[in-house]
Amino acid sequence: MRLHLLLAFSLLLPAGAEILKAEELHSIDNGTIKIGIDRDKGGSITWLSSKTYPNNMVNIADPGRLIQQSYYAGNILDRRADGQSKSWSPWSWNPIQGGGVGSWAIASKIEQDGQSLYSETTPKLWDMPNEEAKALMKQWTTFEASVPNSIVVRCEFQSLRDQYDRWGSAKNRAQEVPACYFTRNFSTVKSYLGNNEWRLETQPPGPPWGKANPPRKSMALFDEDGQGVAIFSPTSNLHWNFGPHGQGQSTDPTAGPCMHVAPISRIVLGPKTTLNYRYWLVVGDADSIATSLDALWEKYSKEQAEIVN
Question: Where is the signal peptide (predicted)?
């Protein structure tokens, strides 16, 4: 199966399209870490920074990047007669929180309650210029108690497809849990092994991406000054995709060059499936991230995704 984000960097937005400004950014900040979601980008995570790295770490160059939900289901179809992008044909049913090839999704609900954020979004289908998916994405974002440099994100995906639509029955497909894109300067990638030990992972610029198998289900990306961001995804059950795109050490969140990492799980999504899972984002230097990842592993290493068909 092809993943749309393996090729997303060849995407050119249609004439007249533009990258929306973060005018609808809603953020929380505990003094150590700041995170924000954007109504105009489907409620996806579009801002992540720390006390020691106050700039935005998230690449927001197009709807296929960000830190967001992305899923694959059903038959792979040629829908060019209906306006499907030639670059993404044939394609499976692929709802994207951030939007489709030429349009952003807009969150229908954003709520902020103290130090937590909640969003609801009708996603777009990736392969079409502006087609809403029959689906609903919910997301809860808050700080992890007792681990001040970490964020916990709960994702809920509801497939609302017609039972006998053209995409057909459930298929066992690889899912990104979640898809993450960061600025290009976070170019050193390491898998966490536990007990403050790391393994360097290398990959030439892609796509295609490299594949890694982090034993503690966590990988981190670091800049030249040793500041970094880690993803811990205990429900992942396959390899992780990772790697750079483009050259240089750009800190610009809207630049083409970027860094990618995605934990992968095999999940069967049917027309009426509901999926729930959680992942964590941790910021800091290698020592502080390692300490936090050890604590998270001890508490959540056996956590499983919840799937209702």
Answer: 1-17
Run of H or E residues at 229: strand 228-232
Question: At residue 38, what are phi and psi to the nearest 5 degrees?
Answer: -120, 120
User: Rounded to whole angstroms, what are the CA distances from 56 to 40, 52, 81, 162, 283?
Assistant: 17, 12, 40, 39, 12
Helix (H, G, I), strand (E, B) or coil at 287: helix
Closest CA to 137 of 66, 230, 80: 66
pLDDT of residue 97: 98
Given this model, what pLDDT does residue 23 score? 56
The pTM of this model reads: 0.93
In the chain the domains, ranked by start, together with CATH numbers, are: 19-308 (2.70.98)
Q: What is the pLDDT of residue 8?
A: 42
pLDDT (0 to 100) of residue 14: 36
Taking residues 49-65, report their average pLDDT: 97
Cα four-point dihedral sign 283, 289, 295, 299? positive
pLDDT tens for 194-211 read: 999 999 999 999 999 999
The answer to whether the CB of 89 falls within 8 A of the CB of 57 is: no
- Hey, is 235 helix, strand or coil? coil
Helices (runs of H) and strands (runs of E) counted in the chain: 1, 24
CA dist list (Å): 129 to 63, 74, 95: 11, 20, 13
Question: Residue 122: which residues within 8 A CB-CB, separation 6 or more?
Answer: 105, 108, 132, 133, 135, 136, 137
